[in-house]
Structures are given as C-alpha cells and as structure tokens.
Amino acid sequence: VILSGARAAVQQGKRIGVIATPATAKSNAYKNAILEIEPELQVWQVSCPEFVPLIEQNRIHDPYTTEVARSYLEPLIDQEIDTLVYGCTHYPHLSSILRSLLPNTVNLVDPAVHVATACIQELELLGLRNNHPPMPTRFVISGCPQQFTQSSINWLGCTPTVEVVHFTDTVVSSFRQDVI
C-alpha cells in the first residue's frame, strides 16, 4: 500500500502532505518511500490519532470531526501542499470533509485505489483475471448485526446479508486448546 501510494503521489505533485495514523507517521514509511523515488520532493506528515476512532464511531459528519480535520490539515495547507496522501485505509471515508477543507488544487491520493489497479494489471498480465460475475459476499459476525448493517450501509453503500455466530465457552475453550 505504501509503495503504491508513494508512486501515485510523486506522479501528482512536488509538495506532498501525508496524513497517517500515529504508528505510520512515526515510522516515516510514506515519507521515506516518496523520497526514495524522488529525493528532491518536499514531504510533510501529520499524525492523526483521532481519525480512526471517529470513523469507526460513525462520526464522519459530526462537526467535531470537521474541526479535528481542520486542525490536522492546517500545517499542511500552510506548507502549500499540492498533493495529500491518505496514510490509512480508513481515511477515504473522510474524503468529502477533507476536500472541503483543502484548496481545490490539492490532489488526493488513496493508495488502496492504486494497489487495486496494480493487482488488476498484474492479474491481466499473468492471464489470471477472473471475468466471471462476482460471487455474493457472505458476512459472518459475532457482534451486533444492527451495528454491522448500519456500518456496511454507510461504508459500502449496500445492505449486507449477515449471519451471526455465537461462541460458547465450550467452543472457545476447545479453540484455545487447539491453538496451544
């Protein structure tokens, strides 16, 4: 994901901002990958510790989320970035908010899109691309089906068919013995 995102970023700009989870930002993975491809580029990173919890709590359109996003983007806007890389697969869920806060000239890079494109190209090259209609997706969960369904509608744009499994102490105990 990181290399695909870095490749896409260097094709789109020279002043690149990266928003990332704390661990990804601390690792400098995107910054290092971008500078390895094009050492003369300028790269700034911002750690965004509140984004994932806000997204997972379905607070995407909450005014607080917009304020948090504004505070994370402000130092990047001050640097006059021309490209912003999503350093977490959750962040595309915030794209409408991020787009509204950024100058229109800033390119948004979702590394996952570029990974998917590379996978399709590789499968075609190897003659392995599946041209059959997709199989139905089956969701098996152990949590709350209503919450999962609502998240799926919000994130995937579809209402899933959900199967709930209940773990008993016997099953969990048996599983633990198999693992140990």
TrEMBL record:
<keyword id="KW-0413">Isomerase</keyword>
<dbReference type="InterPro" id="IPR015942">
    <property type="entry name" value="Asp/Glu/hydantoin_racemase"/>
</dbReference>
<keyword id="KW-0961">Cell wall biogenesis/degradation</keyword>
<dbReference type="InterPro" id="IPR001920">
    <property type="entry name" value="Asp/Glu_race"/>
</dbReference>
<keyword id="KW-0573">Peptidoglycan synthesis</keyword>
<dbReference type="InterPro" id="IPR033134">
    <property type="entry name" value="Asp/Glu_racemase_AS_2"/>
</dbReference>
<dbReference type="GO" id="GO:0071555">
    <property type="term" value="P:cell wall organization"/>
</dbReference>
<dbReference type="Pfam" id="PF01177">
    <property type="entry name" value="Asp_Glu_race"/>
</dbReference>
<dbReference type="GO" id="GO:0009252">
    <property type="term" value="P:peptidoglycan biosynthetic process"/>
</dbReference>
<dbReference type="GO" id="GO:0008881">
    <property type="term" value="F:glutamate racemase activity"/>
</dbReference>
<protein>
    <submittedName>
        <fullName>Glutamate racemase</fullName>
    </submittedName>
</protein>
<dbReference type="GO" id="GO:0008360">
    <property type="term" value="P:regulation of cell shape"/>
</dbReference>
<keyword id="KW-0133">Cell shape</keyword>
